TrEMBL record:
Keywords: Cell membrane, Membrane, Transmembrane, Transmembrane helix
InterPro entries referenced in this protein's UniProt entry, alphabetically: Surf1/Shy1, Surf1/Surf4
Membrane spanning residue stretches: 218-236
Compositionally biased intervals (Polar residues): 262-271
Organism in which the protein naturally occurs: Kribbella yunnanensis
Region (Disordered): 246-271
The protein, known as: SURF1-like protein
Subcellular location as annotated: Cell membrane; Membrane
Family: Belongs to the SURF1 family.
Keyword Mitochondrion attributed: no
Membrane topology annotation: Multi-pass membrane protein
Amino acid sequence: MNPDRPLWRTALSPRWTALLLLALAIAGVMSVLGVWQLDVYRSKTAEATAKQALAAPIPLQSLFSVDEGLPAKAVGRRVTVAGTWGPAADQVFITDRRNGSQNGFWVVSPVKLDSGAVMVVRGWVASVNDPAAVAPTGPVQLSGSVVASEAADSSGDAARGRVLSSLRIPTLVHMVNYRLYDAFVVQTSLESGTVPAPAPAAVTPPAPPTDHAGLRNVAYAFQWWIFAAFTLWMWARMVLDAHRGSTEDDEDLPDQDRPTESVASSGTVSA
């Protein structure tokens, strides 16, 4: 390759400059199409998540059975629970839970169903001795949202009493003598049953997990961005090939066709 012919001169020639402008225009359109596909994905995801949160409550047993693990589609779902409050001795408290600026406990009580039982987060209390923490009895029908077990292990707390550091079914299954559903229900309303006075403060259920609807649109977005990058890469590759070809042509020229080099002013031409 002729070092005296820089690459930028080839790239800035009218032909390749025009092609660069065309490549930039095409790549720009493809980039915009990629952003549009990403916006479509976000819109679909937000719509699906909102639809899940606003869906009418259905019986817990219709989502999964006591013998099954918690399916991902059930997390955040609004459900109804109809049964009987379990023994007061099986009620537990989850520590370090906030209610505004106060630190306190979640009150979690079992509701026995036809098959097994489900642990229900009834509300928040400032202390385990709060009158609102007294366990209810009798038949009950309530609504709430399904939540999954927390990740932190609290089995060590279970060995010391009924105050636990995390809400976790694998811990609670060893603290009761009946089967438990692999989920909790955060109570949002009480349709019927004993209403304790005073009642625990309401706990806001966690937001439902994001429903990643339209993941195909994310793939489309990346496709468009790859096409855009490929367009610019192809232009650069074509310029480089053209530059190499032109310099090789220069090297193949006969001596008489090469550009005449200037003679140094101090030199002389021999006869």
